[in-house]
Design goal:
Elements: E1 2-6, E2 14-18, H1 22-34, H2 36-44, H3 46-52, E3 55-57, H4 71-83, H5 93-102
Antiparallel strand pairs: 1-2, 2-3
Helix pairs in contact: 1-2, 1-4, 1-5, 2-3
């Protein structure tokens, strides 16, 4: 398990706790590409779904709703990560999970990161 904490000049402490394993990470990444119902769940409640897969985020660290990149863009990202050996046997997959979901936070639905809706 790994826990990372950060406190910025404004606002509360943010943290992420990673307890996922290679099988969970792989299943998440496969489903985020190929399962439309799962993608919809992630878009509606990314923090909850990430927690189901072993990544627990502090409240407010990701918007309540996001718009994920297309499955094709995520597949390309996965291919590129494998070609560059970024995933390794385990190490990079949880971070890729976060990148796919948290990177989508710039496309937040409703009250965006900056509070504009």
């Amino acid at each position: 398990m790994a826990t990372y904490r950060e406190r910025g000049p404004e606002g509360p402490e943010k943290w992420v706790r990673i307890t996922t394993n290679p099988e969970e990470s792989s299943r998440f990444l496969d489903r985020i590409v190929g399962d439309e119902e799962f993608r919809a769940r992630v878009e509606r409640n990314p923090r909850h779904v990430l927690k189901e897969y072993g990544i627990d985020l502090s409240p407010g660290s990701v918007p309540d709703e996001v718009k994920l990149p297309s499955p094709e863009r995520i597949e390309k990202l996965l291919r590129d990560a494998q070609e560059e050996s970024l995933l390794g046997e385990y190490g990079g997959a949880p971070y890729l999970m976060l990148f796919v979901v948290h990177g989508a936070s710039s496309l937040a639905v409703g009250d965006g990161v900056d509070g504009a809706g």
